[in-house]
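name: query_chain
kind: protein
chains: 1
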Amino acid sequence: MLKEIREALDKEIYLLIDDLYHIKKQNQPELLSFLHKISKNNGIWLKIGTVKFRSELYKVEERPIGVKLGDDVSEIDLDLTLEKMNTTKKFLERLASELLTECSTFKLSELINPNAFDRLIIGSGGVSRDFINLFRQSIINARERLNQNPNHPKGPRISVEDVNEASGEYGTFKKEEFNKDADDGTVRLNSIFSGIREFCLEKANSNCFLLQQDLDDPKIDELVDLKLIHKIDPRVTVSKRQGKVYRAMMLDLSEYAGSRTIRKLETIDFWKPNEKEKLRKVGLIYQPQ
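structure:
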């Protein structure tokens, strides 16, 4: 059928498959092998969208099955992460400005204050979809605040508090996505995430934590893919732990934005040069059970 379509159009065609990770992991190589077979040498370009740590592209049983990165297919990493904060910020500033140009005469600086914009980036984890949703909800929150009090002390622009409130509301949606997207290991994922959340909020009293770099747990990577925790620095050393190297991670903003004042949580602005030293505290080291 695809061959007939291509010949009728007299053009190459693109076959786009999204959300591969909803297919059971053990079945993914068979599906990819089939798609690759019907695409190869038929004028069909195959593009697969998936989540890295919840995908199995290739396996060897009696024979190789699936597609092999570097040989059969190339990888395009679409993630902008908080590890590249400056690059991510420039991209999201450009994205927000383009959206404003389409729908209003506002400049970005007239709509949101700089600290609130940084908080938007943190709340989204650098994910464009989450950024746009949080931005939209923050506008709604700011409108409601100003409708109640046009002379509100937070001013006419979107404030940090407006973003915090939006993030807390968006957290409910993230949890629904988590329960929908997570696989058969949901119970273990929940357990690991609960341990991290408790450590940050009850013990470290911080939005950030450190994991030993050689700790190899795919479930941690799944939590990153599910946007419940975020990578912020791939290499951190701690003065009281000579010879050890750690990865710095951040708990998602939705998990603490609403209770920050009550808990007096120390939030680390890790992208600022004068804040980086705060990541080197021994009290931030998390040791999973």
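note: Residues 235 and 247 are 5 Å apart (CA to CA).
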